[in-house]
Amino acid sequence: xxxxxxxxxxxxxxxxxxxxxxxxxxxxxxxxxxxxxxxxxxxxxxxxxxxxxxxxxxxxxxxxxxxxxxxxxxxxxxxxxxxxxxxxxxxxxxxxxxxxxxxxxxxxxxxxxxxxxxxxxxxxxxxxxxxxxxxxxxxxxxxxxxxxxxxxxxxxxxxxxxxxxxxxxxxxxxxxxxxxxxxxxxxxxxxxxxxxxxxxxxxxxxxxxxxxxxxxxxxxxxxxxxxxxxxxxxxxxxxxxxxxxxxxxxxxxxxxxxxxxxxxxxxxxxxxxxxxxxxxxxxxxxxxxxxxxxxxxxxxxxxxxxxxxxxxxxxxxxxxxxxxxxxxxxxxxxxxxxxxxxxxxxxxxxxxxxxxxxxxxxxx
Amino acid sequence: xxxxxxxxxxxxxxxxxxxxxxxxxxxxxxxxxxxxxxxxxxxxxxxxxxxxxxxxxxxxxxxxxxxxxxxxxxxxxxxxxxxxxxxxxxxxxxxxxxxxxxxxxxxxxxxxxxxxxxxxxxxxxxxxxxxxxxxxxxxxxxxxxxxxxxxxxxxxxxxxxxxxxxxxxxxxxxxxxxxxxxxxxxxxxxxxxxxxxxxxxxxxxxxxxxxxxxxxxxxxxxxxxxxxxxxxxxxxxxxxxxxxxxxxxxxxxxxxxxxxxxxxxxxxxxxxxxxxxxxxxxxxxxxxxxxxxxxxxxxxxxxxxx
Lengths: 364, 306
What we know:
The structure holds two protein chains of two kinds. Chain A is of the alpha/beta class. Chain A folds into two domains: about 40-140 and about 265-290, Rossmann fold, CATH 3.40.50.2300; about 140-260 and about 295-360, Response regulator (Rossmann fold), CATH 3.40.50. In chain A, about 40% of the residues lie in helices and about 20% in strands. In chain A, helix 3 crosses helix 10 (about 265-275) and helix 6 runs parallel beside helix 7. In chain B, about 70% of the residues lie in helices and about 0% in strands. In chain B, helix 3 (about 65-90) runs antiparallel to helix 4. By secondary structure, chain B is mostly helical. Chain B has helices spanning about 10-35, 45-60, 65-90, 95-115, 140-160, 160-170, 175-180, 185-210, 220-230, 235-260, 265-285. Chain B has eleven helices and no strands. At the A-B interface, helix 1, helix 2, strand 8, helix 8 and helix 9 of A face helix 1, helix 4, helix 9, helix 10 and helix 11 of B.
C-alpha cells in the first residue's frame, strides 16, 4: 500500500491533474472604422501579469496595442512551458486570434507544432530560434543593458563580490550574466560574480532562497534575471544593493537600476505589418537603439560620475560605437574567446554557452 | 576550486535549514499523530496548500500575520474535520479520501488564490514574524520556537501514559482498545483534527514566515515528502523532526554548493526521501526481528470494526 502511494511518478501525475488552465480575456473598446482592420491578437505569458516582471512587461505592450491602435486582444497567463503551452496556443487560435505572441523561450517547440496546424495564423515567438513560414522570432538585446547595469554594480560594490540569480542555464541567461560581469570588471577588475541557477522563471520562494545564499556568501550587489522582485525585497531587508529587472519598485531603497523592456515597440510593428498585408516570417533582435530595451533611471545613491559614465556608454551602444562583447574576452577557464579588436557575431551571441572570466561557482 | 566565501557557511546553512524545517516539522508531527492513531492523512499536501493561502490572504486582508497564522490553523482544523468524518465515522477508504482531499484542496488553492491575492511587494504584516524584530530569539523567527514547542508537546503526549496509550492502542488494535473502554473513534478523530490543524499552521508559516509571499505552487510537494518521511522515521515524532531538519539542510546545501562550484543534481536530491522510504519499508518487511523497532501501527488505514 505504502509502496504504491509513494511512487513519485504516481504522485506527480495526480498533482498534474490538479493543476488547470484558466483563460482570461480583455476586449478592446470600439475599433476605429478605418479600413483595413487590425488583427485580433493573442498573448501567452509564462508568469502572472501581476509579477511586475517579464510577463507584466509584455502585458504593458499588449495594453498599448489596445489603447493606441484599438486592437482586440486575448491573453493567457501562468502558462507552463510544455503541454500546457500547446493547449493555450490552441485555445487562443480557437478564439479567433490572427496573430499570437508566445512570450517565453520554453514555448518554442509548442509554437512550431501548433503553427503547423493553423497555417493561416501568424505566430510570434519571443527569445527562441526556430522559425517557420508562419512563425517569426523576436527578442531584444537585453545584454546591452545588463552590461550597463554591470558598470553600476562594479562601481558600487565594496566587497568586490557581486551576485546573479539566473533562471535557467540557457544562452539568453548566460549572455546576460556574462555582459553583467564584463561591465562590472571593465570598471573594477577585482570583481567576481557568483551565480545561482534556480531552474524557473518565476518562483519567488526559490528566488529568495538563492538570493539568501548569495548574500550569505558575501555578495553586496545582487542582480536577478528572474521575474519576481523577491530578491530585491531580501536585499532591502539584508541591507545590500540590488539590480532589478523589468521594473523598479519606487519604494525600494536597495535597487540601483534595472534593464526595462518596452515590447510595444515591436508589437506595434507586427500589427501594422499584418494590417497592411506585409507580415512575413522574420527574425527581429532590437536593442537600445530601437527603444525596445533601456536602463531604468538610476538610484540617487549612485554618484553622479558613475551615472555620467553609464550615460556615455549607453550612447555609445545606441550609436553603434560600442559592443559589450568586444575583445579581448577570456572565458572562466582562461581560453580567449574573442580576440582584441573583434566582436561576437549575433549567431555566436545567440548560442553562447561559456562563461566569462570573473564568474565563480557554477550554473550547471 | 573550493573557496569558502566570506560568511561562516556552516552558520548560514544551519539558519536556512532551520527556517525551512520549521513548517515541515509541524506538518510531519501532525501526520505522525494521526497515523499513530491509525488514520493515514494523504490530504496533507492539500491542507498545507490551503493553510498557506488562507494564512497569507487573511493577513493581507486584516494586516496581521498572527491572525493569519491562526486562520491557517483554523482552516486546517476544518479540513481535518472533513477527513475525520470520511475516514473515521463513515469508514471510507482512507487512501481515496485523503487523495481526494489533496487534489481538491491544492486545486482550490491554486484556483482561488490568484483571485484573492495580488502580487505585492513587502506588505507590512510580514515584518511581524521576522527574526530581526525579536532580538532575544537568536536570529530565528518566533514560528521556529512555536514548531519546537509543539514538537516537545507531541513527543510527551505520544510517549505519555494515558493519552499516549489510548492513541497508540487505537492505531494498533482498535477493537481491543474499544473493548477496554477507549473511545477509538473519538481518539482517532481528535488526532486527525490535530493533524489537520498542524498542517494548516505549517502552510501559514510557509507563506508568512518562510517565503514571505504566496505562490500557487506552494507547498510544491512538501506534503508528499513528509508522508514519505513518516514511515522512514518509524512513526516517532522526535526522529521525524530530525529528518525534516536533515532534508532542509540538504536543500540549503544544494543552492550553496552552486556558489562554490560543486555540482549536485536537484532532481536526484528531490528523489532521496522517497528512495530512502522505499528501502526502509522493504527492510522492515524482510527482517522480521526488526519488527519491534519498526513500529508501524498495525491497524493503519483500517477502520474500526464492530
